[in-house]
Design goal:
By secondary structure, the protein is mainly alpha-helical. Helix content is about 65%, strand content about 0%. It is built from 3 helices and no strands. It is elongated.
Length: about 80
């Protein structure tokens, strides 16, 4: 896919300039916004797919509830022989 140039109106370019990190170009800032949004949407879609999976597989949902209730913040106790 060929590169595309996007023109920003002066007020949008100023807002982007104000929001970007020092030393970052506006192009790099816009790329990071697009990547972040794309990643967020993919994660949202994955979460929805997993929710559907749990709804369709109650045994998996029950196993996850057991896993989530595990006391992971406690140090495991060793069994004495």
């Amino acid at each position: 896919m060929p590169a595309t140039t996007i023109k920003l109106e002066s007020d949008l370019a100023q807002k982007a300039s104000d929001l970007k990190q020092e030393g970052q170009s506006i192009s790099a800032f816009v790329r990071s916004l697009i990547e972040r949004e794309h990643r967020s949407r993919r994660l949202q879609e994955s979460a929805q797919a997993y929710e559907h999976f749990l709804r369709d597989h109650p045994e998996e949902r029950e196993a996850m509830e057991v896993w989530e209730s595990a006391p992971l913040n406690e140090t495991p106790k060793l069994k004495q022989p």
